[in-house]
Amino acid sequence: MRVKKIYFIIVVCLIVILGTYSFSFSEENPKALFQEANIYYEGGDYGKAIEVYEKILKEGHESGPLYYNLGDAYFKSDKLGMAILNYERAKKLMPRDPDLNANYRFAASRIKDNRRIPSSSIWNWTPLKTYEGSFTADELLLFAVAAYLIMVIILAGFVIRPDMKNGIIIATSVMAVIAVINVVVLHHKVGTARAVTVASEADALFGPFDSGTKFFTLQEGMVCSILQSKDDWCKIRREDGKTGWVKKSAVEKI
Amino acid sequence: MKIKSFTIALLAVLVCTAFCGNVFAEEKRLEASLERTTVSVGNPVYLYITFIGAQDVTEPEIIQINGLKINYVGASTKISIINGARTQSVTHTYLVIARSGGRFDIGPFAALYGGKRYNAPAVTLIASGTPASSGASRTQNTSSRTTKSYQQTVNENQNLFVTMEIPKRQVYVNEMLPISILLYVGQVKVKNVQYPTYRHEGFSGGEFGNPRRMRRTMNGRNYEVLSFKQDLYAIKEGNYQLGPARINCQLMAKRGGTNRSARFSIDDFFGGNFGYVTYPAEAISESVPIKILPFPEKGRPSDFQGAVGNFNMTVYVKPTTVKVGDPIVITMTVTGDGNLDTVTSPVIDFTDDFKTYEPEVQRDNNRKIYEQILIPKTHNITEIPKVSFSFLDPRTGRYKTVSKGPFPMSVMERPDSEKGVKMVSMPGGIGVNVYPKEELGKDILHIKEDIGQVKKKNGELYRNKIFLYVQILPLLLLAAFYKGYKRKERMLTDKRYARFMKAPKKARKGLEKARVYLEKGDTLLFYDAVFKAMQGYLANKLNIAIGNISARSVEEKLHGSGYDEDLIKMIHEVFESCEMARYASSTTGGEESQKVFDMVKRVIDRIERAKL
Questions:
Q1: How many CA atoms lie within 13 Å of B253's alpha carbon, on the beta-carbon side?
Q2: What is the distance in angstroms between the Cα of A215 and the nearest Cα belonging to chain B?
Q3: Which of A10, A23, A55, A97 to mutate to probe the B interface, most B CBs <10 Å?
């Protein structure tokens, strides 16, 4: 009787969740706008194209190709910072798209004085960085959930076959490690606030005030991490590990 | 029993007596003999000294004789009984090698046995031939005659000798001269045969091949022959001597010589030496005069480059249709008999219309392959010029020239788009095309035509709290599964628990049956069904045998389990009502039945809720 009740609760929960996710957008409008913006772009009217692409975003819709095209339009408008910002946003949705990666590399090659040596953080370790950059946050979450579900199934197997203790411990441990790694990477991916320098140049100061001493300069298009915010200022860390305060208006959060 | 033992003893005595009698009757004497009395210098011969009539006789002392080398090999014993006559003997064997020719008397010989001296007369050995230049164990052939093929003849008595077989006495410079050095082994056994050494001034020599073993008959005698083949190449004109060839080996002599008539065997050159002693030996051949001739002046072609032999040539050209600047490969293969080392690349009369590279050469056993790469510089070329190769045929002493071609070619103008292509020479003479570095444009890739999957902004799954909370469900399911599995397991193994758990379900079934009877108004059957349902439920729930269920037994059980008095009273009432109705049905009515039915339901419900 009680077991039946539990099953019932679970089924209800699932229905609620699936119901939550089964909503769909009316894609007619964003699609039409997207095509319209593309026509502007192909006609060389990059300003108008940007305007229409941004309109789609303002309506609360987003997609990888949308950010990609917007990045292209900004690039053609010589707004390197905005171009890289939108490429970065596109990478969050379609990280393995070859066109996007090619355009990103090409745009990044235009950043002035961008030959920085990355800091020796573990997150700059190439395999980890590649893994993190190759999957979206949702994909990492699904990997973790899949490993977790497999782990639960294995544990259920242990209830039936307690004699297979050693094998089950190993398999469960492996799945647990996979799940934990994916969760940690996901946490780093979404937990680190990153930003792109959209101003042509931005001085990073030692303190959050105009009279502060300049420490270094952020060039347009440079990506940094936001560590702290205070009034109109935010504390950023450049890829080489240097930190400083810049005006919020100089950077745009990815 | 006694008679049988006596008979055996008597027979033994008779046999012993006969045996001993023969021994004592045997005549004792010493004999000496040679395996053969004539021998060539350097060849070994066995000397046997046999004492007949005893076996414990030490070897006689042999006085060394000038011109002979005598070595003691060993002793062998022999016993034979023929027609009851028993003979025993010991034979001491010596190996005799003549160092020089002549007549030698070996002996007389003497042996001591039983304090008595026994003598044997001397034996005579006639050694023929001249002594070898050095080494006591050397052998040497004695003949100085040569056959038509310049093969030395030998003394018929020789057991070990070397000959050189040389096919001709005159060769041209660069000509290949195949020679064979043959080791003849007659009635001796040899091992550890070394490769021949010999002088070959005026020639360069290749490697000896593996020796070939064969049988030959010479002067009516059979020989085992080891043949060593080598190719010589004439280097410089002049008169020279080839040889003498020397082959070192080890002679094997049988230890003891058990059988006087046994002969040497050469069944095994390299093995089977058990029971043999070995002696170093060197066999020497005669030297052979030979003349190296210069290239004839008469008729020498201008493209002759020193090749001597009998050759042929094939030529392939690929491809035959090319564009200006494309490589053409001419493959020229020279095959035939002769000195391939002196064969050089065939000659092609190129014009300035071709760019040429050093030909690449490969060599097989009897052929040389040249690959010549050409690059046509102009589309006016219509053919590859003829290819010629000249050589001296040593059999006729005349020059010969083999020519192939010319080969028709179709050379086309290279299209303008390909004119920047350059041909460069790589190591090994291979040409490759190197295209000019193309200037590539740089820009971002074009925009995407399709918007792809449109999502709500910030609608990522990881932001969805419901999704995250739902992740607890698998653990709950696991817990439920665990509990359900364990319950099922207990139901199978714990009978009391199974009864307890199944009690409500069974009671519901019974009550359902009772309800049907109640609706029909069948009071008797109703009470019967109600009583059974109640009885079964309590029996299962309280783990009491169904036959022992009564109001009293239930009351006693429930009192100790913490149930309230009201419940016990209700159970008591139910049982009383049922019994009244079952045994005095006329006193009960429909209302009373419904009351009992509801009471039973309440009892079951209260017990289930109590969870005690």
A1: 25
A2: 33
A3: A10
According to DSSP, the β-strands at B246-254 and B189-191 are antiparallel
Ranges of each domain in chain B: 23-128, 138-292, 303-432, 490-610
Contact B447 A72 (CB under 8 A): yes
CATH architecture label of B138-292: Sandwich (2.60)
Nearest by CB to residue A99, choosing from B445, B484, B486, is: B445
Return the CATH class of domain B490-610. mainly alpha
Which of B101, B157, B98, B153 minimizes the C-alpha distance to B129? Answer: B101
The class (CATH top level) of B23-128 is mainly beta
Spatial contact of B174 and B342, defined as CB atoms under 8 Å apart: yes
Q: Assign B609 to helix, strand or coil.
A: helix
Greater model confidence, B428 or B61: B61
Which conformational region is residue B299 in: left (phi greater than 0), alpha (psi within -120 to 50 degrees), or beta?
left
CATH number, residue A227: 2.30.30.40
Whether residue A78 lies within 8 A of chain B, CB to CB, comes out as: no
**Do the domains spanning B138-292 and B490-610 agree at the CATH topology level?**
no
Q: Which of B44-48, B84-88, B421-425, B517-521 has the lowest mean pLDDT?
A: B421-425
Q: Measure the N-to-C terminal CA separation of chain A; round to a whole number of Å.
A: 52
Kindly state the helix (H) or strand (E) to which residue B106 belongs, with its residue range.
strand B102-106
A69 close contact with B: CB closer than 8 A: yes
Range of the domain at A79: 28-108
Q: Kindly provide the ipTM of the predicted complex, given to two decimals.
A: 0.80
Residue A242 — φ and ψ, nearest 5°? -75, 140
The answer to whether the beta carbons of residues A43 and A65 sit under 8 Å apart is: no
